[in-house]
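F.,

This is the one I mentioned.
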């Protein structure tokens, strides 16, 4: 399946079910989507090969694994050159506490989503990792008080 191929209703149904339950058996998936197991398996394989499905994972409870504090950080760089952007991106990818890092347009350069045990651990991360990345001029930290909605499921 090439990226320009349009998904049909069955493909979309398969993707919705798999997003909700990546461990569903092929037989149950086929049943829920009105397909034979063989046709279901073929379609899922094509969706994976076409890059529509990029992987499967387990969703962990952040509290139970010692990562209960969610933090967003705005990062302003001192220069906006390709070299500084690349250097920052390399270091952000290496930092285990960073779950997501996005270059954004607007009043700052990057938005980071991080998870840590507590604010003391965040302070250590900020001082020993984040502000030591070459090019970082300024950060603004936003600890999350309540997660109103958190989802990885895309509407398809």
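My design for it:
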């Amino acid at each position: 399946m090439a990226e320009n191929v349009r998904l049909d209703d069955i493909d979309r149904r398969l993707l919705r079910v798999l997003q909700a339950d990546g461990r569903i058996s092929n037989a149950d998936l086929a049943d829920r989507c009105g397909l034979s197991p063989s046709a279901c398996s073929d379609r899922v394989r094509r969706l994976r090969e076409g890059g529509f499905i990029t992987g499967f994972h387990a969703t962990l409870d952040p509290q139970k694994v010692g990562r209960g504090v969610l933090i967003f950080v705005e990062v302003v760089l001192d220069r906006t050159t390709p070299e500084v952007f690349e250097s920052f991106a390399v270091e952000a990818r290496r930092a285990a506490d960073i779950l997501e890092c996005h270059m954004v347009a607007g009043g700052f350069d990057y938005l980071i989503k991080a998870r840590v045990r507590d604010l003391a651990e965040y302070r250590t991360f900020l001082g020993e990792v984040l502000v030591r990345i070459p090019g970082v001029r300024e950060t603004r930290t936003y600890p999350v008080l309540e997660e109103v909605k958190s989802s990885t499921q895309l509407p398809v």
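The chain has a mean pLDDT of 95.

Talk soon.
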